[in-house]
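Try this one yourself first.
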């Protein structure tokens, strides 16, 4: 199996105009289409935190989409950390 298909988990912090612009819903839609599991959550500091788990190549595709974001968003930066995978996720959800 190639490295791009290994199961991975990314912890992502997205900064910019990413709250109140359907960013979490956009993230959920793209992640679900890609077959990823995890969640998106607004943070008190204005960022969105995303946990995405699945094939590394598909997570990279999600990250490419997050850099663009939905209409009316303005992504300034994305910080990605690769973390240990977890078996706690069965779908991609929006957390409050």
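Now uncover the answer:
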């Amino acid at each position: 199996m190639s490295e791009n298909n290994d199961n991975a988990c990314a912890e992502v912090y997205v900064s910019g105009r990413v709250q109140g612009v359907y960013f979490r819903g956009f993230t959920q839609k793209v992640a679900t289409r890609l077959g990823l599991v995890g969640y998106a959550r607004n943070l008190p500091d204005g960022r969105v935190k995303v946990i995405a788990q699945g094939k590394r190549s598909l997570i990279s595709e999600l990250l490419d989409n997050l850099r663009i974001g939905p209409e009316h968003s303005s992504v300034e930066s994305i910080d990605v950390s690769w973390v240990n995978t977890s078996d706690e996720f069965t779908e991609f959800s929006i957390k409050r």
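Discussion: The chain has one domain: 3-85. The chain has a mean pLDDT of 95.
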